[in-house]
Write a structure and sequence with these properties.
The chain is an all-alpha fold. Helices cover 74% and strands 0% of the residues. The longest helix is centred in the first third of the chain and has 34 residues, at 10-43. The model has no long low-confidence stretch (mean pLDDT 94). The two termini are 21 Å apart. It contains seven helices and no strands.
Length: 185
Amino acid sequence: MNRSAIRSHPTLEAALIGAVAGLAGAWVKAQAEPPLQKLTEAYFPPTPGQKKMTGADPIGRQDHMPPAEMIQAAADATDHDITKKQKLAAQQAVHYAMGAALGAAYGVLAARDRRVSRGLGVPAGAVMYGLTHATAVPATGFQAWPWQLPLAAVLWEAGSHLAFGATTEVTRRGLSAGLDRARRS
């Protein structure tokens, strides 16, 4: 599909811009998690038992984050052996695929209604936390509900989603503005 074809489909363009922005947001989210974990655990230290919970310790137990547990469950269900290295690689693929998918949806919604992007994407990041780690992931049984997790884990995970939302919005705005300038040239 050429550029003029994409321009004639504003929803597709918004989704593509959002997907790229979501990839940037996913990268920042991943970078933000370790320092946020250290900061929140300094104020709200989890017990050793709480740190063993799925999703509570990405620094010490990367292979026990919800995507890794889902990958392990799929491997077990299909009688496939999977190494820790394979599980971590697949977890990264899931992380970035989710970032792109959420970013694409966000891009379309923000293009249709400017109110979606209010607060520089931070409220949208909070909604994304609410839709994923606060509801969908616990509903699948791959992570405890937020009120069952250590407070530090809830805070760093929610905080990393706020960083995702802000980065996704800033990137989306920049890409959209760049495309607009290129069109005017």
